[in-house]
Amino acid sequence: MQFFGTIILAAVVSALLGGVATVALSSLAACLHGGCALGGTQMLALMPFYAALGAAAFVAAATRKQWRAAMFYALRLLLLIPVVLIIVGFAAGASPHAHANFEFGSALLLSIPFWVVIVSQWWMVRRALVLRAAAHS
Fold first, then answer.
1. What keywords tag this UniProt record (predicted)?
2. How far apart are the first and last CA of the chain?
């Protein structure tokens, strides 16, 4: 039961870190010529979703017998989600019927907070698993 508390704590802390990254990036970048795909409040609204997605993936990975490999695999998979979204965005922006061009700066503004959430959550959960394994040895 203590491990699930760690997962919940990691989800909350990572969502807060993602929110901080979103606010910082939004204020520093000023949306590159006003072309942001999502506003700061919309990006903040996505943080709980990011945290929940990461928590679900890491819970599934942590319950495996070979949790180290599963955690690393889950991390790589979750870090690829924004890359796929960027590629799809470029493909949609290249369409002759696109109303607006897809900007790489906007994609990074959306992707970096997601990566902050996932990496911080991975680090906290992995640390808890390592400490738990050391205590059982």
1. Membrane, Transmembrane, Transmembrane helix
2. 19
